[in-house]
């Protein structure tokens, strides 16, 4: 038996010796001349489910078209589409685990804000290290600010998939019942709260939905805390430091308290496991008055044909207004109105078997023809200027985003610590929503922040 | 010593496949967890590329972390009420009552109880979600309070009731077979002496099945402490109110990306389990 034990230990030690966190890069031209290739594209999109339009596009247009193009060159291409229809955080976990273990698709669609973490972990690499020459005429069509979504530490990691902007959506039918104007445009937080107080008089209606709590994940940060915070004049990352328990942060938490402690919002909804999806459904059922979201809400949620919470009368019933600063001129840069923006990025897996072909596929995905096709007749702020010029005119909401919102918007800091800060902010709103006082919560938030990023990085 | 007459070499040959499997799927992951637990390994970010050994820092941090202590407390509640009390008592009562009813009723009841045990967790979680959710949940409609979101407003109570429902079958089966070992003559004597039902259970039945009770309690306590199904129902929410240890560990490791820290927590859970197991084993030995 002694021998077996020794053998067992030997096996275990051998396995343990494999060190943590390794990644390898190969030759960029490997398999460049292959006559048979297989590429997999991974997205948080599913036919008939989440982001259905994007999924349909990949499945029914991209794959047949690209396979055909390759066939014309004498290459047999098998393109696989790995569909997902889950929360963004779960999808991120999955992608991180895939990349970490050397697996995953060849092209992966991720949120631009995850880029820093993945890059620092070595799970993705600068584009030119993965595929070699990255020359492409498409770069001229992508505005610098949008290209920045695919960059980290001054290096380009991927190709962005467009951008967005945040506004207050409101239900005009409920507004009419509450005696509020159809061209509503609040000029301060108080204006929003006042409108909420009037909406409270309409039976069965939750006046305001401002995402809060950890269950909503990044949606709380992006559609709640950060737009409010830029409205106080101080962004979350300022002068090289993360904002601690500042007066501005307390104001933001105070706003949450006014909404959720004052009966203007539904605190239970913020804590439910599927609260965000439910808030969409409630809005589409005319049961939420005001909701802060990005244009995604207009394009993919209440969209009458493919939305996840369709509203047949969207064009008549849904209004939008700029997000006001706390008070006029109190916003970041002295602005009256504010917004936050983000966007997805497609990256190439450093472990791909076919780097050159993956880059070719990437260029195809981002060609003017493909981008235009992906819109399926609708409008969206794509990454390409030439496509935007053609399609945005037809949609009043998206033109509004392009013309009114993008000039005043801010982007999240592309730092690897950001997700930890975001989690601390979510926790802070969760605490306020469940009834704790903003002052207590701000203190706890500061402690969490110091623990996450270090005392020296907290302002 | 060599009662089977195999000889050492052949005996080793016979057990080697089993040992290899245990080594790969049990010993190695356990040691690996211990190793990761002393590093600052993360899912993403710089510490994913170059993890550093931080010794016992993770353990110290965990013990001081209010989320961890909250979680230990919730796990203790969960084990005590859903397993030690809930499943144990309900399982015994079912086994005791079903002895004397007609076979078809016994089979039907046993079948239903077993069904809740053998269904896959995801299916069961989905069903309970449908029962407990707001607006259209079955329970809310039955009680005439559709606005109650049971899993949000009463998260731990919901989980405890759920787990009693889910796990009672095992206790019931075990006690059914244990009760068969009680000599009928003693039960008959007790009846003739005029003992009440409770007196019979306490003085006649219990001494016979004491070992079964301890074994059963040990097993269901450990299973419940390690149960991950609560994640499917509440994901630990709202605001950590139902975050039992397995859920906390999962969230820290995969949602928070703190693989090292979460591994240290799982090690603490393992130590806790071992301590519980030792207490039970000691009790069992005292009986012997």
Automatic annotation (TrEMBL), chain B:
Bilayer topology annotation: Multi-pass membrane protein
Pfam family, any one: BPD_transp_1
Q: State the organism named in the record.
A: Lentzea pudingi
Q: What is this protein called?
A: Amino acid ABC transporter permease
Membrane-crossing residue ranges in chain numbering = 12-35, 72-99, 111-131, 259-281
Q: Where in the cell is it found?
A: Cell membrane
The record's CDD domains line, in alphabetical order, gives:
TM_PBP2
Say where the protein is mainly found.
membrane
Q: Which UniProt keywords apply?
A: Cell membrane, Membrane, Transmembrane, Transmembrane helix, Transport
């Amino acid at each position: 038996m002694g021998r077996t034990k020794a053998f067992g230990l030997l096996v275990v030690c051998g396995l343990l010796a494999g060190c943590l966190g390794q990644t390898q890069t190969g030759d960029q031209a490997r398999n460049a001349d292959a006559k048979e290739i297989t590429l997999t594209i991974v997205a948080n999109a599913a036919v008939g489910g989440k982001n259905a339009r994007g999924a349909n596009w990949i499945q029914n247009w991209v794959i047949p078209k690209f396979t055909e193009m390759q066939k014309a060159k004498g290459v047999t291409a098998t393109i696989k589409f790995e569909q997902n229809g889950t929360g963004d955080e779960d999808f991120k976990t999955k992608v991180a685990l895939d990349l970490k273990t050397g697996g995953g698709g060849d092209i992966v669609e991720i949120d631009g804000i995850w880029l820093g973490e993945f890059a620092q972990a070595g799970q993705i690499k600068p584009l030119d290290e993965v595929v070699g020459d990255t020359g492409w005429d498409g770069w001229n069509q992508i505005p610098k600010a949008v290209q920045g979504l695919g960059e980290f530490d001054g290096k380009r990691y991927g190709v962005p998939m467009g951008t967005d902007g945040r506004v207050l959506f409101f239900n005009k039918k409920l507004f009419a019942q509450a005696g509020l104007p159809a061209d509503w445009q609040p000029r301060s937080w108080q204006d929003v709260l006042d409108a909420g107080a009037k909406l409270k008089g309409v039976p069965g209606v939750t006046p305001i939905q401002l995402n809060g709590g950890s269950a909503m994940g990044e949606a709380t940060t992006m559609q709640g805390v950060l737009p409010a915070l830029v409205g106080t004049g101080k962004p979350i990352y300022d002068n090289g430091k993360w904002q601690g328990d500042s007066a501005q942060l307390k104001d933001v938490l105070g706003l949450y308290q006014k909404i959720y402690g004052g009966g203007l919002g539904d605190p239970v909804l913020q804590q439910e496991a599927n609260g965000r999806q439910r808030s969409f459904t409630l809005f589409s059922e005319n049961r939420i008055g005001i909701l802060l979201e990005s244009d995604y809400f207009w394009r993919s949620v209440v969209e009458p044909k493919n939305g996840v919470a369709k509203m047949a009368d969207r064009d008549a019933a849904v209004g939008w207004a700029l997000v006001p600063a706390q008070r006029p001129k109190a916003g970041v840069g002295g602005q009256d109105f504010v917004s936050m923006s983000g966007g997805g990025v497609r990256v190439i897996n450093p472990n791909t078997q076919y780097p050159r072909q993956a880059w070719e596929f990437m260029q195809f995905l981002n060609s003017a023809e493909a981008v235009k096709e992906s819109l399926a007749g609708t409008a969206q702020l794509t990454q390409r200027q030439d496509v935007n010029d053609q399609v945005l005119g037809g949609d009043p909401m998206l033109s509004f985003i392009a013309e009114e919102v993008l000039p005043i918007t801010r982007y999240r800091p592309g730092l690897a610590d950001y997700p930890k800060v975001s989690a601390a902010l979510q926790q802070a709103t969760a605490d306020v929503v469940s009834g704790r006082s903003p002052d207590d919560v701000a203190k706890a938030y500061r402690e969490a922040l110091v623990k996450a990023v270090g005392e020296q990085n907290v302002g | 010593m060599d009662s089977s007459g195999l000889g050492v070499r052949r005996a080793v040959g016979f057990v080697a496949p089993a040992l290899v499997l245990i080594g790969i799927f049990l010993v190695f992951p356990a040691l690996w967890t211990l190793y990761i637990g002393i590093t600052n390994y993360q899912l993403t970010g710089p510490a994913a590329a170059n993890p550093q050994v931080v010794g016992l820092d993770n353990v110290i941090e965990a013990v001081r972390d209010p989320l961890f202590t909250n979680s230990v407390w919730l796990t203790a509640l969960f084990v005590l009420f859903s397993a030690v009390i809930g499943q144990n008592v309900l399982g015994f009562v079912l086994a005791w009552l079903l002895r004397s009813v007609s076979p078809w009723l016994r089979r039907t009841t046993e079948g239903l109880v077993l069904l809740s045990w053998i269904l896959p967790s995801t299916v069961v979680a989905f069903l309970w979600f449908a029962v407990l959710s707001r607006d259209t949940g079955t329970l809310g409609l039955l009680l005439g309070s559709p606005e109650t979101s049971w899993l949000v407003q009463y998260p731990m109570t919901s989980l405890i009731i759920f787990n009693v429902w889910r796990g009672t079958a095992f206790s019931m089966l075990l006690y059914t077979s244990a009760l068969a070992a009680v000599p009928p003559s003693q039960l008959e004597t007790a009846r003739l002496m005029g003992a009440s039902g409770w007196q019979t259970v306490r003085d006649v039945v219990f001494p016979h099945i004491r070992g079964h009770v301890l074994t059963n309690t040990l097993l269901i306590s450990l299973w419940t402490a390690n149960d991950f199904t609560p994640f499917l129902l509440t994901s630990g929410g709202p605001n950590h109110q139902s975050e039992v240890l397995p859920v906390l560990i999962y969230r820290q490791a995969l949602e928070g990306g703190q693989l090292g820290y979460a591994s240290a927590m799982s090690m603490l859970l393992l130590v806790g389990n071992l301590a519980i197991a030792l207490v039970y084993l000691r009790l069992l030995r005292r009986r012997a």
